[in-house]
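User: Please fill in residues for this 411-position structure.
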């Protein structure tokens, strides 16, 4: 910024904070050693800590005070993948005595000038991210900063009361996001429970309680439907699995020089498509209407449903169960990676238990309604995140000022 807002200051981070480097692992077991937990890059996330898996190391007792974290330290990762560059949060003493690895900086702010919460927010804002990216040492897909670069970080800050108010305002957005995340987690747990009960017949709808489920081979309701098209190699598009085990796809443009093919196959909405190379990882999905017309190679066989026996609304959830996954693994030869290719005839011999078509449709409706609620809240969460980013950019650089005697929380 060329001109600072009234009352704001700009200086290098080293003028208002002490930057503590962490301990390097390795070497011989020191004398008079104590074993203590330490934070790795994986523990320091963007705005929170993940302490689900903590590791320990041995350190000379006399060095504990040198490397132990203090309440209020701002933790920042030095880098790695771009998303790890300058990622961090505030340490509030979640573990009584905890160290930090040399890939995690601890920034100890002079609280008479800068609040840790304010600096952590600014470092995570577009302003902070831009600085880290501009000064980082880069290689292919990797980026990192060192202590000198972090020391020169040009921190902008207003008087303490305004810092505190900005942190409160942005904290309100975090609280709103946290509530939405809790709702999403609850819906995801509910979905797992519904799938466990409804897809096994443990719980039935009253109107279907008297009908028996039957066991069918996949080949009894799936028809192999290759739709061959001629396509020049330069326009080869592969339909790939977006996320194994979630039943969704994405289009991937491949390098035509390494993936040249004379024949490709067109998919339609409601097709079942299987990646025969990674079927053992549940690389199987039903094509959405928006993806109709995409082209796939022979490694992605497509099948049409006989909807008089099984409907896709039901099968899209059944195929993601642990039981179905186990069956896919059983028909896949041993080995790793591309050596594990599933046989199409073996796939069609797999069996599943299904209720009547009307009950299948009802089960699918319930599960899809739950998924729709999850999607709605995820979109709302994304909107809150975008709102917060905009606020961070404006509030943490003084583009928009706040009154220190009032707070406007997120709706």
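Assistant: Residues filled in for all 411 positions:
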């Amino acid at each position: 910024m060329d001109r600072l807002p009234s009352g704001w200051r700009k200086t290098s981070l080293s003028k208002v904070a002490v930057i503590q480097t962490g301990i390097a692992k390795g070497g011989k077991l020191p004398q008079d050693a104590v074993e203590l937990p330490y934070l790795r890059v994986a523990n320091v996330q963007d705005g929170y800590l993940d302490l689900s898996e903590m590791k320990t190391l041995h350190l000379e007792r006399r060095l504990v005070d040198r490397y132990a974290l203090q309440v209020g330290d701002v933790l920042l990762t030095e880098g790695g993948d771009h998303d790890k560059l300058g990622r961090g949060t505030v340490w509030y003493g979640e573990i009584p005595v905890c160290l930090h690895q040399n890939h995690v900086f601890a920034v100890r702010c002079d609280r008479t000038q800068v609040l840790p919460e304010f600096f952590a927010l600014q470092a995570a804002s577009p302003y902070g991210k831009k600085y880290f990216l501009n000064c980082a040492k880069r290689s292919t897909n990797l980026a990192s900063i060192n202590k000198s670069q972090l020391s020169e970080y040009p921190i902008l800050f207003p008087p303490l009361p305004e810092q505190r108010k900005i942190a409160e305002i942005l904290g309100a957005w975090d609280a709103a996001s946290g509530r939405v995340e809790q709702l999403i987690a609850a819906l995801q747990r509910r979905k797992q429970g519904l799938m466990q009960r409804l897809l096994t017949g443990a719980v039935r709808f009253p109107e279907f309680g008297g009908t028996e489920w039957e066991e069918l081979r996949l080949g009894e309701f799936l028809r192999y439907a290759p739709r061959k098209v001629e396509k020049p190699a330069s326009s080869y598009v592969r339909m790939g699995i977006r996320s194994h085990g979630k039943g969704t796809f994405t289009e991937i443009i491949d390098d035509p020089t390494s993936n040249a093919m004379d024949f490709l196959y067109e998919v339609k909405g409601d097709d079942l498509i299987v990646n025969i190379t990674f079927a053992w990882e549940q690389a199987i999905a039903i094509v959405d209407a928006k993806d109709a017309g995409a082209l796939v190679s022979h490694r992605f066989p497509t099948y049409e449903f006989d909807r008089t026996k099984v409907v896709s609304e039901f099968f899209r959830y059944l195929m993601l169960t642990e039981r179905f996954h186990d069956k896919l693994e059983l028909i896949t030869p041993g080995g790793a990676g591309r050596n594990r290719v599933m046989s199409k005839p073996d796939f069609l011999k797999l069996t599943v238990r299904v209720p009547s078509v009307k009950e299948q449709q009802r089960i699918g409706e319930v599960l899809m309604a739950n998924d729709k609620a999850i999607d709605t809240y995820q979109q709302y969460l994304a909107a809150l995140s975008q709102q917060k980013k905009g606020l961070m950019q404006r509030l943490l650089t003084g583009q928009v000022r706040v009154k220190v005697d009032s707070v406007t929380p997120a709706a």
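For context: The chain is about 30% helix and 20% strand.
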